[in-house]
């Protein structure tokens, strides 16, 4: 079933606008309600802006975000190895979100929340200087030229990252796609608000001991099995 205005919501950067509304008709939306202790859906994800640590986690630990959590391999492993952080995963795919929620429900450490929400809404979910780290791993590259505008990594996203990150906060990026990596570098060439801590077209061989080489997602395993080089960028907010 097609929801009226659903296409409009995906066009012309509508997701970045204050009048954006989530529209869908998906059975997994209701199924996710069964995990309401740690899952926030759609506009619920924007109800705690500036209050995540105070209201939700009730502590002052570093707040870290993953945009595009996928099947959750990184989120699960990272949270269990780092119980002294507050972690928020975010993805907008329904069935994949439900599958991950079932896994998260069994985790020992509950130092996380999961948002069924869009990454474009970052600055509507988090306040200025609220976030310590942002992770953005293996996003959809939208390889066709006519679809490039759908890529998340561009000026509005960088603006939002810079806004919500604390001074000295870090954005970690990994991709398998050469074209998307070049696109990212092009958007960073005149960027003065971030310091480039790492830039590599072959992360695993150039930085085998780096933090980013210690975690392997489901997609990353596939890419590595195909001898695809992993590209990476690490940016620090100045």
Helices and strands, with pairings:
Blueprint: H1 6-10, H2 27-31, E1 39-41, H3 52-57, E2 63-67, H4 73-81, E3 86-91, H5 94-104, E4 112-116, H6 122-125, E5 131-137, H7 155-164, E6 165-175, H8 178-188, E7 194-200, H9 203-206, H10 218-225, E8 231-237
Parallel strand pairs: 1-4, 2-3, 2-5, 3-4, 5-6
Antiparallel strand pairs: 6-8, 7-8
Explain what you see:
- The structure is a single chain.
- By secondary structure, the protein is of the alpha/beta class.
- The chain has a single domain, classed as Vaccinia Virus protein VP39 (Rossmann fold), CATH 3.40.50.150.
- Helices cover 31% and strands 21% of the residues.
- It contains ten helices and eight strands.
Q: Would you identify the CATH architecture? A: 3-Layer(aba) Sandwich
Any idea what the radius of gyration is? 17 Å
Q: Report the biggest beta sheet as strand number plus sense, adding barrel if it closes.
A: 8 strands, mixed
Average predicted confidence as pLDDT: 93
The class by helix and strand makeup works out as alpha/beta
Low-confidence stretches: 1-10
Helix percentage range: 25-40%
CATH homologous superfamily? Vaccinia Virus protein VP39
How many distinct helices? 10
Strand content: 15-25%
- How many beta-strand runs? 8
Provide the domain count: 1
Using the coordinates above, name the CATH class.
Answer: Alpha Beta
Dominant shape: globular
Strand order of the largest sheet: 1-4-3-2-5-6-8-7
Span of the ends, CA to CA: 46 Å
The SSE string, one letter per element, is HHEHEHEHEHEHEHEHHE
CATH topology grouping = Rossmann fold
């Amino acid at each position: 079933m097609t929801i009226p205005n659903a296409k409009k919501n995906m066009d012309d950067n509508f997701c970045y606008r204050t009048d954006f509304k989530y529209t869908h008709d998906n059975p997994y939306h209701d199924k996710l309600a069964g995990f309401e202790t740690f899952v926030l859906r759609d506009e619920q994800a924007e109800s705690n802006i500036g209050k995540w640590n105070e209201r939700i986690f009730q502590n002052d630990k570093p707040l870290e975000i993953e945009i595009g959590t996928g099947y959750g391999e990184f989120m699960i492993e990272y949270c269990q190895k780092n119980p002294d952080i507050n972690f928020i995963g975010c993805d907008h795919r329904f069935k994949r979100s439900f599958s991950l929620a079932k896994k998260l429900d069994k985790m020992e450490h509950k130092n996380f929340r999961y948002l069924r929400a869009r990454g474009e809404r970052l600055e509507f979910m988090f306040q200025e200087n609220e976030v310590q780290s942002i992770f953005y791993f293996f996003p959809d590259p939208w390889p066709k030229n006519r679809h490039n505008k759908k890529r998340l990594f561009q000026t509005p996203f960088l603006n939002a990252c810079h806004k919500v990150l604390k001074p000295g906060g870090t954005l970690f990026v990994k991709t398998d796609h050469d074209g998307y990596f070049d696109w990212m570098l092009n958007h960073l060439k005149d960027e003065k608000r971030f310091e480039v801590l790492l830039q590599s077209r072959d992360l695993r061989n150039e930085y085998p001991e780096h933090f980013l080489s210690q975690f392997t997602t489901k997609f990353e395993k596939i890419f590595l099995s195909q001898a695809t080089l992993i590209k990476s960028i690490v940016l620090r907010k100045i």
